[in-house]
Amino acid sequence: MSSRTVITGIGVVAPNGLGAEAFWKATQSGTSVLDRVTRPGCEHLPLRVAGEVRGFDPGTMVEDRFLVQTDRFTHQALAAADLALEDARLGRADYEGDPFSVGVVTAAGSGGGEFGQRELQHLWEQGPRFVGPYQSIAWFYAASTGQISIRRGLKGPCGVVASDEAGGLDAFAHAARGIRQGSRAMLAGATEAPLAPYSIVCQLEYDGLSTLDDPERAYRPFTAGACGYVPAEGGAMFVVEDEAAAVARGATVRAVLAGHGATFTGTRRHDPSGEGLAHAIRGALREAGCAPEEIDVVFADALGTPEADAAEAAALADALGAHGRRVPVTAPKTGTGRAYCAAPSLDTAAAVLALEHGIVPPTPNVYDVCHDLAVVTGAARPAELRTALVLSRGRMGSNSALVLRKGPAAGV
Description:
Blueprint lengths: L4 E10 L2 E2 L1 H10 L5 E2 L12 E2 L13 H4 L4 H17 L3 H4 L6 E7 L4 H14 L8 H4 L4 H10 L5 E5 L4 H14 L4 E8 L4 H7 L30 E9 H6 L6 E10 L10 H14 L8 E3 L6 H15 L2 H4 L1 E3 L11 H16 L1 E2 L13 E2 L5 E2 L4 E7 L4 E9 L6
Parallel strand pairs: 5-6, 5-7, 10-11, 10-15, 11-13
Antiparallel strand pairs: 1-2, 1-8, 1-9, 3-4, 7-8, 9-16, 12-14, 15-16
């Protein structure tokens, strides 16, 4: 990122709150909303605990014609995009004269499983004439990007990172590249809805999926009781802009996208050595012009298996040196679940809000840390925060790191 690319708007649809304000209130308080899975058709499945987005009525935020064409993960993306644009005060009138100046990039790990399952059931039970015409597009990874751009009239560079978890951070790098190449603004982020029966069945073979039925014990990374993660739905969208253009239109700069790094270790599981993640961290620091000791807080990937947690601790020690054992580490997702590509998007939202408020949120349900990390547990911790590091790893070998700097409006 050779020029300053900034975040000016945040839109959140999460298990612990709709909108950035509600999300942050629950996140800083350490509230855990993990609970038994209640989605229809999931009662007999081994997955017992997840992070569900409750109280979200897409019909109140999205027009009917888009609802019938799209899956739940796109409903959430459309709503989050609206919230982000509203937060950034970027309306259609601001770009109507040049719709090619604003683009969209999202990340998706699985697409529209709920919509796809419903239509396949129609095919099985009633025949091909009963399969809706939108089956061909609603399940697709790029559906959210396409529908956001159509609905908002955005004709700039559009794309999707079809990846596993780390794609949620990689989307920011794609957005920053769009800004460097001349776009005025980009909508970037990820939402996921992996709690339909078909989607859950696909996840059952994932290494690290927790099947415990106790919400307080099912997802406890960095502890002796670590037994994997629980999935979640929801996510976050962001308005990303060139800093000069944002300031010129009077937008509030909430954070600076300072640096990004990514690697691929070429395995079918998380890199047990942590070497790939460490290399991604060093790449992000180098691009940000940031020394290891400048990192004030780390938002951890926190897979929740002993091997993966040890690898993450090793990566931080490798990339940050002795500072890696002292810097505050947090994983708010232990209270909401791991939303695949959307997990690092929600972590990024939490990181921006933490920088703004000078508070490191705690790691819910974690209290007996067994790794050489300064994991923040119990209660939020006030701190002087200027720079945050967000980490994400995918189960297919991808690693990504993002460095954020506090925005000028927050005191820089």
